[in-house]
Amino acid sequence: MLTIAVSKGRIYEEALPLLEEAGIRPVDDPKTSRKLILQTTRDDVQLVIIRATDVPTFVEYGAADMGIAGKDVLLEHGAESLYEPLDLNIATCRLMTAAHKDAPDISRRVRVATKYVKTAKKYFAELGIQADIIKLYGSMELAPLVGLADCIVDLVDTGNTLKANGLEPRDLIMNISSRLVVNKAAMKMKHQAIQSLLDQFEKTLAKR
Ligand code: ADP
Ligand code: PRP
Ligand code: MG
């Protein structure tokens, strides 16, 4: 049995066509079902539905053989303990700094609200900027509006969320997409099954 960890929402939705090409169609829909383990049309494959930030943890410990996770999440988790064989090129966006549109450029010291604490620390350290990081779990865009931070580090896609809150994108930290990650022991123990799935995904991606 191969267990694949996926998060609900955009990653699940965008991964479905890829899985489908490999003959994997979930029997239940996570939008309506409360089940956390989804059987699929393939007897040898099941999906576990978890929070996006938990995917690397499940795969690292072998609770799932493989998973799909955003590069943002992998950077923050530290991905040395996982194989990352494929860029699936789904859920694409940018990790950026953003600030109030009237706020001055970032100077030598800055207060940053983000859920990407490690990534933000590293980014500002490399620029020689002293950053006081405030960890949030969501709605980062609110922080500059209420005086909690000078800027944020968050994901930007259309830019609509920033705009709706009077913020503007500033600097690009990294282009983000979702990656297939594989547990290192599973890669050895279930090599054939995993490799054939990787080949199928690769074939589908090459056609896009
Ligand atoms: P969460 O509940 O953790 O916010 P999401 O489904 O919103 O879960 O995000 C999962 C992944 O999708 C993120 O780690 C990121 O890689 C990507 N992502 C997040 N927001 C966007 C967006 N607005 N557009 C495209 N991709 C996104
Ligand atoms: C993500 C991200 C930004 C927004 C960016 O939030 O955290 O807030 O998308 O996308 P945009 O540039 O197209 O507006 P998401 O929709 O995932 O909401 P949540 O993570 O706070 O639930
Ligand atoms: Mg989100």
Automatic annotation (TrEMBL):
Any Gene Ontology biological process: L-histidine biosynthetic process
InterPro entries in UniProt: ATP_PRibTrfase_cat, ATP_PRibTrfase_CS, ATP_PRibTrfase_HisG, ATP_PRibTrfase_HisG_short
Family assignment from sequence similarity: Belongs to the ATP phosphoribosyltransferase family. Short subfamily.
UniProt subunit comment: Heteromultimer composed of HisG and HisZ subunits.
Domain ATP phosphoribosyltransferase catalytic: 51-202
The organism of origin for this protein: Methylotuvimicrobium alcaliphilum (strain DSM 19304 / NCIMB 14124 / VKM B-2133 / 20Z) (Methylomicrobium alcaliphilum)
Superkingdom classification of source: Bacteria
Gene3D superfamilies the record matches: Periplasmic binding protein-like II (3.40.190.10)
Listed GO CC annotations: cytoplasm
Free-text note on domains in this protein's UniProt record: Lacks the C-terminal regulatory region which is replaced by HisZ.
Pfam families reported for this sequence: HisG
Name of this chain's protein: ATP phosphoribosyltransferase
